[in-house]
């Protein structure tokens, strides 16, 4: 049986007609190739000696004994260290929860002000967005370092740093979600004579809440991770302890801390994904 | 002007507020030109009497959607004047415009409910113009506002769904909730922009019948955009035909012949111009 015999019953009425030909492919295929070439060139340049970051893979081989020692220590957690970690671990969790709550309260109105659909005032919207772009551009560890200098060592600068970091993320994601949402209900509330505040509260807020909770759960996870290192600059939580054991080369104790953070993050992830399923 | 508006309903009590005096509509040489250069309305003049049920008919792009939106100021007019209940919509801004919109209910093709909110919350949106902002912000609706919302839901047979999420309802039920939202405004006029275009035929007739009851039992002026000639003929008391932004027909709906519709559409009648039942 030839190929033509097979094709014939599948395409009745096609016999005798020329095979279909799509229109000419649009030009510009070179763009993809050029893109790849650019990525390769940039990578090569950054690795090049003299101008780049000078990656020396040989260092791994030369210092292998150093690395192996640390790994051996990390593989033997010092369980007796556990009682001393409980306090800092709880402080880390408290910082994360408090920061998430404060960030939630601050972000809800800011998200509505940052979205085109819920804030028609171009200037106010631009101002909110501009400030938040600046807020988002600064890394959380830098906030913590500056805030420790401003308000002193402890959990407070850590919480403030996390709040700034969270607000930047939540407002961006939630305001984008608002702008992507259908505007029909907003138009209806406007047609009923509502002020922008009334429109936002009665229609936009109920529809945005599930997504909003979702983003808050996400930053809660980020906060647990971030707050465990903020202590490196004196901003409370696990970080202070990490800094201490690291400077005494107690990699066995560091190992226990890493395990604890891992467990907390895994538990939190399980809880928040269960909460998400209920939300959405 | 908002003062006059408030004064007009200031004497209303909970007894007679459910049947407010319906409003007339007066349009004079209304032109709507969008920033992209499209002329949606090209010199429309119309007088709609209080308590009429006006079917506005035209193909999509004929300007009927723009026309209905000029009546509550959702679409600003380029020139001409629009008066609703004696109030100049074209000049109204801010508080005055909101007070005016509060007296005019609107129903949309895609229902435009807040899907995640409950049916009751959606109907209470109809009370925003009658409530201080702080009450809306706190969700602290007055007992009277709630009573009005229940009454509106009961009128469209959706009271038992008050606590359901709006998005969990069928299309016809959602449009009934949207009608209840408009009724909760205790409106002087109701604007309906293609209210049944997203519904199947039996449901469409049910929703149109609801609108007719709003018009007949409450005496509210109803302006309804339609593109199906049998619905326009059956439910309208008056027919206004729009083509390319101009009024090409204005007369009683019942005796508008197919010839009239062919005139409005500018082409012969097709099977899909009729809903059937």
How would you characterize the overall build of this protein?
The complex is a heterodimer of chains A (280) and B (277). The longest helix of chain A has 35 residues, at 196-230. In chain A, 75% of the residues lie in helices and 0% in strands. Chain A is extended and about 70 Å long. Chain A has helices at 3-10, 30-47, 58-62, 64-74, 82-114, 122-137, 140-151, 155-180, 184-191, 196-230, 238-247, 251-279. Chain B is globular, with a radius of gyration of 18 Å. Chain B is α/β, with parallel strands linked by helices and 277 residues long. Helices cover 35% and strands 22% of the residues of chain B. In chain B, helix 8 (201-218) links the parallel strand 7 and strand 8 (221-226). The interface between A and B is medium-sized, with 23 and 36 residues.
List keywords for this structure.
heterodimer; A: 280 residues; mainly alpha; MetI-like fold; 12 helices; disordered N terminus; B: 277 residues; six-stranded mixed sheet; 10 strands
- Helix percent of chain B reads 25-40%
Q: Write the element-wise H/E pattern of chain B from the N-terminal end onward.
A: HEEEHEEHEHHHHEHEHEEH
Q: What is the count of helical runs of chain A?
A: 12
Radius of gyration of chain A, in angstroms, nearest whole number: 28 Å
SSE topology:
The complex is a heterodimer of chains A (280) and B (277).
Chain A: H1 3-10, H2 30-47, H3 58-62, H4 64-74, H5 82-114, H6 122-137, H7 140-151, H8 155-180, H9 184-191, H10 196-230, H11 238-247, H12 251-279
Helix pairs in contact in A: 4-12, 5-8, 5-10, 5-11, 6-8, 7-8, 8-10, 9-10, 10-11, 10-12, 11-12
Chain B: H1 2-10, E1 25-33, E2 39-48, E3 53-57, H2 64-70, E4 79-84, E5 87-88, H3 94-102, E6 104-107, H4 119-124, H5 133-138, H6 143-155, H7 171-184, E7 189-193, H8 201-218, E8 221-226, H9 229-235, E9 238-243, E10 246-252, H10 258-265
Helix pairs in contact in B: 1-3, 6-7, 7-8
What's the short version?
By secondary structure, chain A is an all-alpha fold.
């Amino acid at each position: 049986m030839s190929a033509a015999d097979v094709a014939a019953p599948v395409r009745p009425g096609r016999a005798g007609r020329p095979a279909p030909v799509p229109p000419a492919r649009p030009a510009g295929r070179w763009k993809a190739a050029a893109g790849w070439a650019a990525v390769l060139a940039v990578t090569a340049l950054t690795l090049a000696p003299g101008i780049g970051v000078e990656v020396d893979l040989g260092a791994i081989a030369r210092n292998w004994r150093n690395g192996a020692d640390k790994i051996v220590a990390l593989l033997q957690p010092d369980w007796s260290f556990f009682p001393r970690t409980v306090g800092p671990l709880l402080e880390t969790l408290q910082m994360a929860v408090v920061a998430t709550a404060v960030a939630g309260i601050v972000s809800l109105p800011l998200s509505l002000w940052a979205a085109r659909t819920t804030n028609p005032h171009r200037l106010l919207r631009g101002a909110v967005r501009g400030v938040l772009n600046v807020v988002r551009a600064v890394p959380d560890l830098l906030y913590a370092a500056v805030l420790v200098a401003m308000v002193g060592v402890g959990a407070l600068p850590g919480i403030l740093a996390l709040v700034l970091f969270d607000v930047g993320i939540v407002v961006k994601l939630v305001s984008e979600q608002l702008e992507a949402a259908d505007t029909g209900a907003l138009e209806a509330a406007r047609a009923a004579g509502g002020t922008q505040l009334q429109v936002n509260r009665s229609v936009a807020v109920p529809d945005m809440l599930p997504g909003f909770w979702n983003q808050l759960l996400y930053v809660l996870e980020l906060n647990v991770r971030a707050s465990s290192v903020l202590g490196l600059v004196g901003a409370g939580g696990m970080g202070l302890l990490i800094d201490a054991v690291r400077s005494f080369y107690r990699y066995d104790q560091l190992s226990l801390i890493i395990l604890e953070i891992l467990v907390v993050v895994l538990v939190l992830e399980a809880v928040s994904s269960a909460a998400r399923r209920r939300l959405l | 002007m908002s003062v006059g508006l408030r004064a007009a309903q200031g004497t209303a009590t909970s007894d007679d507020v459910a049947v407010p005096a319906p409003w007339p509509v007066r349009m004079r040489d209304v032109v709507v030109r969008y920033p992209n250069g499209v002329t949606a309305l090209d010199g429309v003049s119309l007088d709609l009497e209080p308590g009429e049920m006006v079917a506005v008919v035209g193909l999509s792009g004929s300007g009927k959607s723009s026309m209905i939106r000029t009546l509550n100021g959702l679409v600003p007019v380029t020139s001409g004047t629009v008066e609703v209940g004696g109030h100049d919509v074209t000049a109204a801004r801010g508080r005055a415009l909101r007070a005016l919109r509060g007296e005019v209910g609107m129903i949309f093709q895609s229902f435009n409910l807040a899907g995640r909110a409950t049916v009751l919350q959606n109907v209470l949106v109809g009370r925003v113009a009658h409530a201080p902002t702080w009450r809306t912000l706190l969700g602290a609706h007055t007992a009277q506002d709630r009573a009005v919302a229940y009454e509106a839901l009961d009128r469209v047979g959706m009271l038992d769904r008050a606590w359901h999420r709006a998005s969990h309802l069928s299309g016809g039920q959602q449009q009934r909730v949207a009608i209840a939202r408009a009724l909760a405004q205790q409106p002087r006029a109701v604007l309906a922009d293609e209210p049944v275009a997203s519904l199947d035929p039996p449901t469409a007739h049910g929703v149109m019948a609801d609108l007719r009851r709003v018009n007949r039992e409450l005496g509210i002026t109803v302006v309804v955009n339609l593109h199906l000639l049998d619905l326009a003929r059956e439910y309208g008391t008056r027919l206004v035909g729009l083509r390319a932004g101009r009024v090409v027909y204005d007369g009683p709906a019942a005796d508008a012949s197919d010839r009239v519709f062919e005139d409005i559409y500018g082409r012969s009648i097709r099977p899909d111009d009729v809903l059937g039942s």
